[in-house]
């Protein structure tokens, strides 16, 4: 009996030890996930505006979330590669992304998009907006927006405008301008910003919409003339430049924006925590001033506000792409 009882005790102990070893890795993995870093995916190249914004936000987010935030660039195909990575990520809040206007344009640019932005993503927070500015080169005599419109109307199609490519935000900003102004101006797409700037400064291009950081020094130096900013409010970086609405196009409003997203069906508690972390990150005066200096206004919205904002932008950009004759490839 003693031997049997001892054997039984030994068996129970063996089973308990075995169960502990089987269960321990799962617990350890769960703990590791909870304590791991946040993947902050940027579907744009290093050095891009979205990348700069992500890196400016990462320290604040890390502090608010209590874990490291690692920015990871996954550029390609208008941001599709990076967005797909977010769509496919675990729904644990450890993978989020920062994206911009491209995500509202891609449905009009690509026929077989691998995801549905409204259904396959969680909209966490609209972080902020960017200002574009309409600038003219040295060969354009117009000193203000009304003179430019008058010149364009008197010479349909003779003036040209440069953009960073078909379907880019700078193209669509200009498309909205020509529509609101009722003018015909020839579009010349470039594959990037450096040659565009060279040709604009050299007088080979008449005008362009540009991101404020890319042209503010040339504006202040008098090499480019700023006729108006694209957003509803003036920019503190160039406060003397009116909005296009003030300058003569009352219905014009078009800007860049950057928004934090995650995979679809993130638990509500996780989404709320991430959104509150964004709001905490953008609150300090120092970071708001730093973003304002490059033409950005920080917002830090709720998830509900972020999704509503995207729905409006998606409809607006779909209409502009159709108007510009852009068809899915």
Give a verbal description of the structure.
The chain is of the alpha/beta class. The chain folds into two domains: 161 residues, Bordetella uptake gene, domain 1 (D-Maltodextrin-Binding Protein, domain 2, 3-Layer(aba) Sandwich); 116 residues, D-Maltodextrin-Binding Protein, domain 2, CATH 3.40.190.10. It is 47% helix and 18% strand. The chain contains twelve helices and eleven strands. Strand 1, helix 2 and strand 2 form a beta-alpha-beta unit. The N and C termini lie far apart (81 Å). About 3% of the residues have low confidence.
Provide a compact summary of the structure.
By secondary structure, this protein is an alpha/beta fold. 47% of the residues lie in helices and 18% in strands.
Distance between the termini: 81 Å
Helices and strands, in order, run as: HEHEHEHEEHEHEHEHEHEHHEH
Question: Count the strands?
Answer: 11
Report the radius of gyration as a whole number of Å: 25 Å
Q: Please tell me what the overall shape is.
A: globular
Oligomer: single chain
The CATH superfamily of the largest domain turns out to be: Bordetella uptake gene, domain 1
Average the pLDDT over all residues and give the rounded result. Answer: 89
* Total domain units: 2
- Put simply, the count of helices is 12
Helix share, percent: 40-55%
Which class do the helix and strand fractions yield?
alpha/beta
Low-confidence stretches: 12-21
Question: What characterizes the major β-sheet?
Answer: 6 strands, mixed
What is the CATH T-level topology of the largest domain?
Answer: D-Maltodextrin-Binding Protein, domain 2
Under CATH at level 1, the class of the largest domain stands as Alpha Beta
Beta-strand portion reads 15-25%
């Amino acid at each position: 009996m003693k031997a049997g009882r001892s054997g039984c005790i030994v068996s129970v102990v063996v089973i308990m030890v075995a169960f502990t070893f089987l269960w321990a890795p799962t617990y350890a993995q769960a703990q590791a996930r909870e304590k791991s870093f946040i993947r902050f995916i940027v579907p744009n190249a290093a050095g891009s505006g979205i990348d700069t914004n992500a890196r400016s936000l990462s320290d604040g987010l890390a502090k608010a979330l209590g874990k490291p935030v690692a920015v990871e660039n996954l550029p390609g195909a208008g941001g599709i590669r990076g967005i797909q990575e977010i769509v496919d990520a675990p729904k644990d809040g450890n993978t989020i992304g920062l994206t911009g206007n491209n995500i509202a344009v891609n449905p009009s640019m690509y026929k077989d998009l691998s995801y549905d932005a409204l259904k396959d993503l969680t909209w966490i927070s609209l972080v902020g907006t960017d200002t574009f500015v309409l600038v003219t080169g040295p060969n354009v005599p117009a000193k203000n927006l009304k003179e430019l419109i008058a010149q364009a109307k008197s010479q349909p199609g003779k003036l040209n405008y440069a953009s960073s490519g078909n379907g880019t935000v700078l193209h669509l900003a200009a498309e909205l301008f020509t529509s609101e102004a009722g003018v015909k101006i020839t579009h010349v797409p470039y594959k990037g910003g450096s040659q565009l700037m060279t040709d604009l400064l050299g007088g080979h291009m008449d005008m362009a919409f540009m991101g404020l950081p890319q042209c503010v020094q040339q504006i202040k130096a008098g090499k480019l003339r700023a006729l108006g900013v694209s957003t509803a409010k003036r920019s503190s970086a160039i406060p003397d430049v009116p909005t296009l609405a003030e300058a003569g196009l009352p219905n014009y409003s078009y800007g860049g924006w950057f928004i934090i997203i995650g995979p679809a069906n993130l638990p509500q508690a996780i989404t709320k925590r991430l959104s509150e972390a964004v709001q905490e990150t953008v609150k300090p005066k120092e970071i708001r001033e730093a973003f304002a200096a490059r033409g950005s206004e920080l917002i830090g919205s709720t998830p509900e506000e972020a999704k509503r904002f995207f729905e409006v932008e998606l409809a607006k950009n779909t209409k502009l792409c159709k108007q510009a004759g852009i068809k899915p490839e």
